[in-house]
Design goal:
InterPro entries: Cell_div_ZapB. This is Cell division protein ZapB. It comes from Shewanella mangrovi. By secondary structure, this protein is mainly alpha-helical. The chain has one helix and no strands. The termini are far apart.
């Protein structure tokens, strides 16, 4: 194998390694976004549960008053 082929192989390997590093960084960013969205979803679910309980309570009061 000639030195030129080895040099080309080295460049391709270096390029592949750089691409892998970029993909790893993107993956970490997406994991962080996913965690934030999960936390936001949990908060919204708690808010929904709170509102649902309040509405159920108010409907119960209305039903009691009507009876």
């Amino acid at each position: 194998m000639s030195l030129e082929l080895l040099s080309q192989l080295e460049q391709k390997i270096q390029s592949a390694l750089e691409h892998i590093e970029l993909l790893k960084m993107e993956l970490e960013e997406e994991k962080a976004k996913n965690q934030q969205l999960g936390e936001q979803n949990q908060k919204l679910q708690q808010d929904l549960d709170t509102w649902s309980n309040k509405v159920s309570g108010l409907v119960g009061l209305l039903n009691h008053e009507i009876s």
